[in-house]
From TrEMBL:
GO terms for cellular component: cytosol. This is Bifunctional protein FolD. Keywords: Amino-acid biosynthesis, Histidine biosynthesis, Hydrolase, Methionine biosynthesis, Multifunctional enzyme, NADP, One-carbon metabolism, Oxidoreductase, Purine biosynthesis. Catalyzes the oxidation of 5,10-methylenetetrahydrofolate to 5,10-methenyltetrahydrofolate and then the hydrolysis of 5,10-methenyltetrahydrofolate to 10-formyltetrahydrofolate. NADP(+) binds at G159, R160, S161, T225. Its EC number is 1.5.1.5, 3.5.4.9. It catalyses: (6R)-5,10-methylene-5,6,7,8-tetrahydrofolate + NADP(+) = (6R)-5,10-methenyltetrahydrofolate + NADPH; (6R)-5,10-methenyltetrahydrofolate + H2O = (6R)-10-formyltetrahydrofolate + H(+). Belongs to the tetrahydrofolate dehydrogenase/cyclohydrolase family. Residues 133-275 form the Tetrahydrofolate dehydrogenase/cyclohydrolase NAD(P)-binding domain. It holds the Pfam family THF_DHG_CYH_C. It comes from Methanolacinia petrolearia (strain DSM 11571 / OCM 486 / SEBR 4847) (Methanoplanus petrolearius). One of its GO terms (molecular function) is methylenetetrahydrofolate dehydrogenase (NADP+) activity. It comes from the Archaea.
Length: 278
């Protein structure tokens, strides 16, 4: 079975749209982008497009690539204080030289629709999540909508990043899975991944996960957005070879990526609701 993130994201976006139309909420997402990385510009554009589709207002702050940490924090603090702004997203990665942790901590947790602030992280890890990071949040929505219950299953996450691997592990723990987190220092990765009932790959290497790493009947979730040697967009998983042995698998494109954006819209709507005490 192919887990159609594109289709599911459209369904979720339609729900967000109708919720906004039903209320007189005027949700607003602010994005902050530093420098001119074309991939980051593309992602931010996609987020603004999604806002436009569902009726979320969006404002974009663009700072030069040679900005100092303080400049970025100043921009964030303006948005913190602006009552019309409900969500703040600082596009990552930030240019080298900028203290990413400091910038993330400058976003007030109430507007942290990315779920990257340590307070929201801590809440997630203590089992009382508030804003959940959009990629792992979107993956949990995929699992729920396709009625894949992680409870009691063995889940293996490859990657331990703050934006994907770590919160993914926390969400799966909260959903009663038995969770293993693998990373660059893991010895015998294939031995670990082959035990997974649910395998989540967030490595960032084109077609790295082959069939020898996957148990027959496993659910395979591919977070990778890579380009292969021909410049073709592909995931971490060798889809052609893994799809036949998986019971369910997300494609790239059209899997996790669109769900990331849909979850960002949901988080922004939720923030606007709270702001209005609805
Ligand atoms: N503060 C912050 N929050 C993020 O959520 C964040 C970020 N920084 N930095 C970069 C990553 C990456 N990311 C993606 C979102 C959508 C797709 C997506 O929709 N991809 C399409 C394909 C798009 C294409 O054609 O390249 C798909 O998979 O179908 C991919 C990647 C959000 N990120």
């Amino acid at each position: 079975m192919i887990l159609n993130g594109k289709e599911l994201s459209e369904k979720r976006l339609a729900i967000v749209k109708s919720e906004i139309e039903k209320t007189d909420l005027k949700p607003c997402l602010a994005t902050v982008i530093v420098g001119e990385d074309p991939a980051s510009q593309l992602y931010v554009r996609m987020k603004h497009n999604a806002c436009g589709k569902v009726g979320i207002r969006s404002v974009g702050v663009e700072l030069p690539g040679d900005s100092m940490t303080e400049d970025v924090i100043n921009a964030v603090e303006k948005l913190n204080k602006d009552p019309a702004v409900h969500g703040i997203l600082v596009q990552l990665p930030l240019p080298r030289g900028i203290d990413t942790e400091k910038v993330i901590e400058s976003v007030i947790p109430e507007k942290d629709v990315d779920g990257f602030h340590p307070l929201n992280n801590g809440r997630l890890f203590s089992g009382r999540p508030d804003f959940v990071p959009c990629t792992p949040g979107g993956i949990m929505t995929i699992l729920r909508e396709y009625e894949i219950d992680p409870a009691g299953k063995k889940a293996v996450v490859i990657g331990r990043s703050v934006d994907v691997g770590r919160p993914m592990a926390a969400l799966l723990i909260n959903a009663d899975a038995t969770v293993t987190v693998c990373h660059s220092k893991t010895q015998n990765l294939a031995e670990e991944t082959s035990k997974a009932d649910i395998l989540i790959s967030a490595i960032g290497r084109a077609r790295f996960v082959g069939p020898e790493m996957v148990k027959k009947g496993a659910v395979v979730i591919d977070v990778g957005t890579n380009h292969d040697e021909n410049g073709k967009l592909c995931g971490d998983v060798d889809f052609e070879k893994v799809e036949p042995i998986a019971s369910a698998i997300t494609p790239v494109p059209g899997g996790v990526g669109p769900m990331t954006i849909a979850t960002l819209m949901e988080n922004t709507l939720e923030s606007a609701r709270r702001h209005a005490n609805l």
